[in-house]
Amino acid sequence: MKGRTHLTFSILLGVISLFFIDLGVKEHAIFFLLVVLASFMPDIDHPDSAIGRKIRPISFLVKLLAGHRGVFHSLLIPLTIFLVLFQMGYTIYGIAILIGYLSHLLLDSFNHSGVAWFFPLPARIKGAIKSGGFTDFILFLVFLSLSVILGIFLMLR
Ligand SMILES: [Zn+2]
Q1: Strand partners of residue 111
Q2: What is the model's pLDDT at position 52?
Q3: What is the pLDDT of residue 105?
Q4: 153 C-alpha vs ligand 1 centroid, how far in Å?
Q5: Ligand 1 centroid from CA 109, angstroms
Q6: Ligand 1 centroid to 42 CA: how many Å?
Q7: Which of 9, 38, 109, 143 is 20 to 30 A from 32 (CA-CA)?
Q8: Structural domain of residue 13, as residue ranges?
Q9: Domains in the chain: how many in total?
Q10: How far is the CA of 22 from the centre of ligand 1 (A)?
Q11: Burial class (CB in 10 A: 0-12, 13-18, 19+), 120
């Protein structure tokens, strides 16, 4: 999926999450930001992605070592980050990272190349949606509209 589709999907999930967590304004802001940032993290293994372009040398190295849609597109990385944050007592932020990261893997699972969720096991979950194609664009519009509508509800709450 295109970066904007990942972005709007993570914003939507971030907004929905805020209906269910009861923290201060500052924590809500951090939670939301982490969801959105984490949704870009898997594509660190792709130098031409939105995040990859910003840190090209690192991204190039990661792709060389781990391959595109390898370990960074699996449960291994987000679960490790979650466990570290959980150990440090930041469970709620670990959950934010999980939501954002898994939202990316979920959307990528609908693409042709799919996602090996249980890396190093080779089995991939894949779909038929073309990255940058018509369905990708429709999903972007749906996620954007729902984010705006629910965002307004959240603020009026
Ligand atoms: Zn990806």
Answers
A1: 129
A2: 87
A3: 97
A4: 30
A5: 9
A6: 6
A7: 109
A8: 3-156
A9: 1
A10: 31
A11: exposed
